[in-house]
Specification:
Family: Belongs to the DedA family.
InterPro entries: DedA-like, PAP2/HPO, PAP2/HPO_sf, VTT_dom
Strand content: under 5%
Oligomer: single chain
Number of strands: 0
Distance between the termini: 22 Å
Helix content: over 70%
Radius of gyration: 24 Å
Number of helices: 20
Pfam families: PAP2, VTT_dom
Keywords: Cell membrane, Membrane, Transmembrane, Transmembrane helix
Membrane topology: Multi-pass membrane protein
Shape: globular
């Protein structure tokens, strides 16, 4: 195969792969203490993406060999401190806190915590520690209800003893594995850790951008006109990610990143090639068009929703944009790839992000925030797996996949912004998602044999 087309490569000096900041041990431990305390502090934890931050800090601690006992002690101390301060505020300053303008604008915060505490009593402190929206409110509610201090301290200690390892150990052992695994597998661990952090950060951010949240309202005040904060943040971040992945692809640093990650990923994909191929078929352009068109026809003709036409129009837009970008940059695929068309961005990744993202957006747009959030949580890992399968098959560079996903999600975000102004009057039935699942499984079963030949999988 000819050498990759380099006409667009930017003359940027060679750089190493992503590395952690060289923070001293006391700084990492202090950050763990501070984030754990803030995550549990009354009302502060409602807007702080503490789960994602603690995962990143635990990963940094594990990869640098910090003592696990010290990390757990800092997390435990922070959890005890945050809940303790919240309890003290509820016990001694409840009237002052209730009269704050921020709390008055969001009475549901306290009401939900007080109802939970009234129902479960001391057990609510154990349970609430692991329920995101309640964690920063329950100790304050316990204090305002004048729970005896020794009893609260006992429940606080028991809950923190379980919370600290549950939130720290996954990130710590992932980082620890960076030291133990062979150097050839280190890029894979970085990739997994990065994906987990991105998913956690996105989940935490979207959860805190529900329409009644402080963060959403503050962003709404900064935006011109009736721009909805949540999809606008998604549009800006995905458009920025598309530009960043493009710039990296055209630079020596991006070439180094691609060539470092791809051999490990393709070797991993060779362990279960048929399974990886079945996953990658979910991003076939034919399937994307079939399902997007079926959804639009169902919504427009059966539910009388003209808004549903956005699913097929958005999918066609992404496919057309992808073809344009492929020919604009003319980046060759990896050597030994079974396919010969241009590589950047990944058409499968963009098509999957388009039909899944647009369908999910249409189905959930006029539902409560919690239902939208849960539907996005189901869709996000599926989109990532389809994109990752392209690297596992060795037919796309990793940055091709990043750009493709960003491309599809950016169009889905534009569609969501439009639906804010023109929402459908009827709800799409949950059974339609089941129908799409049946169609998808049927397509995969039908195409698995021919696809194995096309991808040279025996």
């Amino acid at each position: 195969m000819p050498e990759p087309n380099r006409k667009w490569i930017l003359p940027v000096p060679e750089e190493t792969l992503i590395t952690l900041p060289n923070l001293p041990a006391w700084a990492v431990l202090s950050l763990i203490l501070g984030v754990a305390a803030a995550e549990s502090l009354a009302f502060v934890g409602l807007v702080l993406p503490g789960v994602a931050l603690l995962f990143a800090l635990a990963f940094a601690a594990g990869s640098s060999g910090l003592d696990l006992g010290a990390c757990l002690a800092m997390a435990l101390a922070g959890a005890l401190l945050g809940d303790g301060v919240s309890f003290w505020l509820g016990k001694h300053s409840t009237d002052r806190i209730r009269n704050l303008s921020l709390v008055k604008r969001h009475p549901a915060w306290l009401e939900q915590g007080e109802r939970f505490f009234a129902r479960w009593g001391g057990l609510s402190i154990l349970l609430g520690r692991f329920i995101g929206p309640l964690r920063p409110v329950i100790p304050f509610a316990a204090g305002s209800c004048q729970m005896p201090t020794p009893r609260f301290m006992l429940y606080n200690l028991l809950s923190a003893l379980g919370w600290a390892p549950a939130y720290l150990l996954p990130g710590y052992f992932t980082g620890r594995g960076l030291q133990a695994m062979p150097p050839a597998l280190e890029p894979l661990l970085w990739l997994v850790a990065g994906l987990v952090f991105v998913l956690l950060a996105w989940q935490q951010l979207h959860h805190r951008l529900h329409p009644d949240s402080v963060l959403s309202q503050r962003l709404g005040q900064l935006l011109p006109g009736p721009w909805p904060p949540s999809p606008l943040v998604m549009l800006i971040s995905t458009a920025g990610l598309l530009l960043l992945s493009t710039a990296l692809t055209l630079s020596p640093s991006g070439e180094n990143l691609n060539q470092t990650l791809l051999p490990t990923l393709s070797a991993l994909g060779a362990l279960l090639p048929k399974t990886v191929l079945a996953v990658t078929l979910l991003g076939d352009l034919e399937l994307a068009l079939i399902l997007a068109l079926a959804t639009s026809l169902f919504g427009a003709l059966w539910l009388r929703q003209t808004q549903a036409w956005g699913v097929i129009l958005g999918t066609l837009t992404v496919i057309a944009l992808n073809v344009l970008l492929k020919h604009l940059f003319a980046i060759d695929r990896p050597e030994q790839a079974a396919l010969t068309t241009f590589s950047f961005p990944s058409g499968h990744a963009s098509a999957a992000a388009a039909w899944i993202g647009l369908t999910c957006t249409w189905w959930a747009h006029n539902r409560p925030h919690a239902q939208r959030h849960n539907s996005y949580l189901v869709a996000a890992p599926l989109i990532l797996l389809i994109g990752l399968s392209r690297c596992l098959l060795g037919v796309h560079w990793p940055l091709d996949v990043v750009a493709g996903i960003a491309e599809g999600l950016a169009v889905a975000a534009v569609y969501r912004i439009w639906l804010y102004r023109y929402p459908a009057k009827t709800l799409a039935p949950p059974g339609w998602l089941g129908a799409l699942l049946i169609l998808t499984l049927g397509y995969v079963a039908w195409q698995l044999g021919p696809a194995a030949l096309a991808y040279r999988i025996g």
